[in-house]
Amino acid sequence: MNRIEIANLILAEINSNRDKLKSSFSASKEKIGYFYIDDLLPQELASELALVFPKTKDMRRLKSIREYKYISAQMNEHHPLLEETIYAFQDKRIVDLIGNICGIDSLYPDGLLYAGGLSSMGKDNFLNPHLDNSHDAERERWRVLNLLFYVSKDWRLNNGGHLELWPNGPKKESIVIESRFNRLVVMATHQFSWHSVNKVNVNESRNCISNYYFSEEPLKSDDRFHVTKYRGRPNQFFLNAILDFDAFARMTLRKLFRKGIRKNPHIYKKG
């Protein structure tokens, strides 16, 4: 299938649940707006995506005290169905529909997949509570929505590897949203949208296809530019201190070098 055919399927499913999704986002947007929809694609197509998802040996490893996962934005190195699917989410009809659901007038997808693309998390992989970088690669538009589409078959709650939202900050309780197969999660990103992924407990891979949407304006009027900022979990006091210094140092560098001292390698290098 090509991206237009896949986009048609996504569009129909979201449209049929439009009112419910709008209510979900509206009810949560004061803290971290989000909604999710299950069985987004026909089972046969979602199963095919699970089957052709790349192995971690064909992806880039990120391992530090902040995170441990595998990523790729170089879509031409993987099965064509994955590229068609990720760009189906960038179809203008879908972007506009999700913008309507979330009450955002101007939304732009990112053809370069800056910090988006594919991610895989295996045994003991994790992602600490963090705030996403506030802008796109050129620091021209605000990052406002994160789309996460999960494609690991039969993924269960006790497997771990689930999305966590921290609406009252990373020192309080989190909301766990399961990384259920064929589920799309859409969440707001701003300077209070702390989120994480809990540790994977099994020798299997939790696989995800992700997109970011950007806007000319931030979601919150008091949003300010920030780099990706990590925190420890509520009981990780020493780690918190280290990560606070890490964020301070990187933010200081960005004040000196507006676009950073090197280009982020996590983009789709086409051609």
Brief summary:
Helices cover 28% and strands 24% of the residues. With 271 residues, the protein is an alpha+beta fold. Strands 1, 2, 3, 4, 5, 6, 7, 8, 9, 10, 11, 12 and 13 form a 13-stranded antiparallel beta sheet that branches.
Describe this entry's structure for a reader.
By secondary structure, the chain is an alpha+beta fold. It has a single domain (3-256), classed as q2cbj1_9rhob like domain (Jelly Rolls, Sandwich). The protein is built from 6 helices and 13 strands. Strands 1, 2, 3, 4, 5, 6, 7, 8, 9, 10, 11, 12 and 13 form a 13-stranded antiparallel sheet that branches. A hairpin with a 3-residue loop joins strand 2 and strand 3 (67-72). The longest helix has 20 residues, at 237-256. It is globular, with a radius of gyration of 18 Å. The model has no long low-confidence stretch (mean pLDDT 94).
Name the CATH architecture.
Sandwich
Distance between the termini: 22 Å
Count of discrete alpha- or pi-helical segments spanning 4 or more residues = 6
SSE run = HHEHEEHHEEEEEEEEEEH
Rounded mean pLDDT score: 94
Strand content: 15-25%
Number of domains: 1
Q: Rough shape?
A: globular
Full CATH superfamily name: q2cbj1_9rhob like domain
Assembly category? single chain
For the CA atoms, what is the radius of gyration? 18 Å
Helix content: 25-40%
The CATH class:
Mainly Beta
The computed structural class is: alpha+beta
Beta-strand segment tally:
13
CATH fold group: Jelly Rolls
Q: Poorly predicted ranges (pLDDT <50, ≥5 residues)?
A: none
The biggest sheet amounts to:
13 strands, antiparallel
